[in-house]
Amino acid sequence: MLPPSKGHVGWRWSTPETLEEERQPGDSHPAGPEASRLKKSNWGFLLTGAVGGTLVALYAVATPFITPALRKTCLPFVPATTKQVENVVKMLRCRRGPLVDIGSGDGRIVIAAAKEGFTAVGYELNPWLVWYSRYRAWREGVQGSATFYISDLWKVTFSQYSNVVIFGVPQMMPQLEKKLELELEDDARVIACRFPFPHWTPAQVTGEGVDTVWAYDASAFRGGGRRP
Ligand SMILES: C[S@@+](CC[C@H](N)C(=O)[O-])C[C@H]1O[C@@H](n2cnc3c(N)ncnc32)[C@H](O)[C@@H]1O
């Protein structure tokens, strides 16, 4: 082997199997400043990775909650109160057939309806809420009758549902009213939470303030039972 120049680290064979580091007089020990620089840069990489990973995770979780607010009609996730859910269930008494919650949030309405014996479906734009709803339904033992889909409510046809629940916002109600009028069968019932439909006449109203729930029968609003 060529003799290493002073100040450099060289290598020599001490035995046929072992390659040893050869140090020159005046060389610093690897545990000195060089090693601590290496250690620091490793921590730097780890920290950058951790901060970057956290930011990506936060972005992935927060975006589906923020984007509904940026759409033409802002329909944010506001879960129904316990009283509101009770009022919806009250309006479903004596009803049968499949049920849909339009914009099902964390699945509480769909799960409550499934517990009442309905085959219930929720359409929701936010995938995190859909996955959470599926988990909740499984935990509550109603996964067989409570189903959740990641879907845009404006792209779904509701004709197969006899019971429709919506906790919307006032800006969307006129357009949804038209859509449901075209799609629902005469025996359907529509239940609106917190905000009523602008033109239909409710068959029943229950609750007060934010917990108010309106029930509309399709036979009335399709048969001309509209308010002027
Ligand atoms: C006011 S929350 C009602 C949640 C649930 N129905 C309840 O009563 O607890 C409205 C829900 O609609 C969802 N949403 C907003 N825009 C949507 C769209 N275009 N299609 C489907 N769901 C939508 C929101 O993510 C939110 O979870």
What's the arrangement of secondary structure elements?
Blueprint: E1 10-15, E2 18-22, H1 33-70, H2 82-91, E3 99-102, H3 108-115, E4 120-124, H4 127-139, E5 146-150, E6 163-166, H5 173-183, E7 189-193, E8 204-206, E9 213-217, H6 218-222
Parallel strand pairs: 3-4, 3-6, 4-5, 6-7
Antiparallel strand pairs: 1-2, 7-9, 8-9
Q: What integer value in Å does the Rg equal?
A: 32 Å
Element order: H for helix, E for strand: EEHHEHEHEEHEEEH
Q: Work out the helicity level.
A: 25-40%
Shape: elongated
Tell me the CATH topology of the largest domain. Answer: Rossmann fold
What is the CATH H-level superfamily of the largest domain?
A: Vaccinia Virus protein VP39
GO molecular function: protein-lysine N-methyltransferase activity
Membrane topology: Single-pass membrane protein
InterPro entries: FAM173A/B (IPR026170), SAM-dependent_MTases_sf (IPR029063)
Subcellular location: Mitochondrion membrane
Quick structural gist:
Belongs to the ANT/ATPSC lysine N-methyltransferase family. The chain is an alpha/beta fold and 228 residues long.
Can you walk through the features of this model?
- It is elongated, with a radius of gyration of 32 Å.
- The chain has 228 residues and is of the alpha/beta class.
- The protein folds into two domains: 1-30, no CATH class; 82-222, Rossmann fold (3-Layer(aba) Sandwich).
- The protein has a seven-stranded mixed sheet. Strands 1-2 form a two-stranded antiparallel sheet.
- It has helices spanning 33-70, 82-91, 108-115, 127-139, 173-183, 218-222, and strands at 10-15, 18-22, 99-102, 120-124, 146-150, 163-166, 189-193, 204-206, 213-217.
- The structure holds S-adenosylmethionine.
- S-adenosylmethionine is lined by residues 68, 75, 77-80, 101, 103-105, 108-109, 123-126, 129, 152-154, 167, 193.
- InterPro entries: FAM173A/B, SAM-dependent_MTases_sf.
